[in-house]
Amino acid sequence: MNSVPRTRSRRLLSSAAIGTLVFTIAACGGGGSGDGGDTVVIGYTGPLSGGGAAYGENVKIGLEMAVDDLNDDGVEVDGKPVTLELKSLDDKYAPSTAASNAQRLADQDKAPVVVSPNAGAIKAIQQINSGRSNFLISAYTSDPAIVQSDNPLTMMIPPNFESYASEFTETGMKHGGKKLALLGTQSEYGQQWTKSITDAWKEAGGSVGGDNSVDYATVSDFAGPVSKALADKPDAIFVGGPSQPTALIMEEARKQGFEGSFLVMDQAKLDEMATVAKIDNLTNSVGVLPVSEYEDPGTKDFIDKFADKAGDKKVPTSETALNYQGIAIITKAMEVSGSTDDPEKIRASISDALPEVDDKYKVNGFPDEITDQGHLLNPNLEATYLDDDGEYTKVPIDQVSDAK
Q1: Structural domain for 200, as ranges
Q2: What does DSSP say about strands 154-156 and 236-240: parallel, antiparallel, or unpaired?
Q3: Looking at the structure, do residues 67 and 102 belong to the same domain, yes or no?
């Protein structure tokens, strides 16, 4: 494993004071565990069919693994055993459906937390999670707008994606050149990434061609968009969406003779892409660090358990690993507070719960703090550069503020 020295000081995420936090945790009505305890539903709304199904399934697997392991370890709150139960609903990536699902999970299933892995869906759910029903959103998105909304019942899990732009730019220029083509996904999130990369690239003195973004969810023949992007003779290409179509775009670019570098949006995972495309077509790329390259206390065992559950042909992604960690953090906060129904105690206990989480759940850059806005912060964020030999080199990332 190579490693790039950390040469820049880390900019800490700013934290603004927010009002009194309300966090209502309700045990599932009538769901006794059979030994005097309660059953608590962990809700999940995500894409389990359609173009985003593989992504949504990665999240679900992480949640299932966490619930199984936590129940095996034994969860006890205020001296009473608690059994966790995962309940999943398909939203097909539609924000309105996600909001309806979340309301149903909170109202009918008394879920104290609902997991969502889609920025648009999370924004819709934030409109309903602190009114008639109170529940925590475990938000798997790197869109900083999620915590900028000042919603007190949101816990954002991944790093702010804007943190990657500067280092991705520096690495892309180093291994390619100063002319960038844009081939990201057309989703709202993809366009935010495109703007962030464009701004960073121009600030570093590079030039950016036209925006050739494509709908990764519906387009299957990428030859035309790739040809159009390559007509500007770029030294580097920004790509990214779900892993599978991103891999096909990169493969198509190599087939058409592109030899430069790729800047890969955080939704796509290089090791997952290598299961659908030849590794030679993915090299000379900067992207997020694969789970297998982490060295947290529980990483190795987590990877082994994932293989037992999902099979050897799938690789664990950060969607799986970070959501596995997220549920462990929320559960420990319940235990530390001694309550599953006192809103202020539960939210206030997340910070104290972090160092109490068992090492087995620390698998993917475990956070050491949660900001006032509700963002979990990993103090040693790293990305990766995949070189021409198929080897990963860790790239330190300076985290930017979540402030607007």
Answers
A1: 177-283
A2: unpaired
A3: yes
| pLDDT, tens digit (0-9, with 9 covering 90-100), for 71-122 | 999 999 899 999 999 999 999 989 999 999 999 999 999 999 999 999 999 9
**Is residue 396, in this structure, part of any structural domain at all?**
no
Tell me the CATH number at 370: 3.40.50.2300
Long-range contact pairs involving 352-358 (C-beta distance under 8 Å, separation at least 24): 353/329, 354/329, 356/332, 357/325, 357/328, 357/329, 357/332, 358/73, 358/328
pLDDT single digits (tens) 290-330: 999 999 999 999 999 999 999 988 999 999 999 999 999 99
Domain shared by 139 and 194, yes or no = no
Domain end among 242, 262, 283: 283
Q: Which residues pair with 320 in a beta bridge?
A: none
Q: What are phi and psi of 356, to 5 degrees?
A: -90, -10
146 in Cβ contact with 119 (< 8 Å): yes
Number of folded domains in the chain? 2
Helix (H, G, I), strand (E, B) or coil at 150: coil
Residues 64 and 197 in one domain: no
Region for 350 from its dihedrals, namely left if φ exceeds 0, alpha if ψ lies in -120 to 50, beta otherwise:
alpha
Residues 247, 317 within the same domain: no
Q: Kindly report whether the global pTM for this prediction surpasses the value 0.85.
A: yes
With CA atoms as reference, report the closest residue to 75 among 351, 360, 331. 331
State how far the alpha carbon of 70 is from the alpha carbons of 43, 74, 152, 330, 376, in Å.
16, 6, 26, 11, 20
Q: How many CB atoms lie within 10 A of CB 379?
A: 12
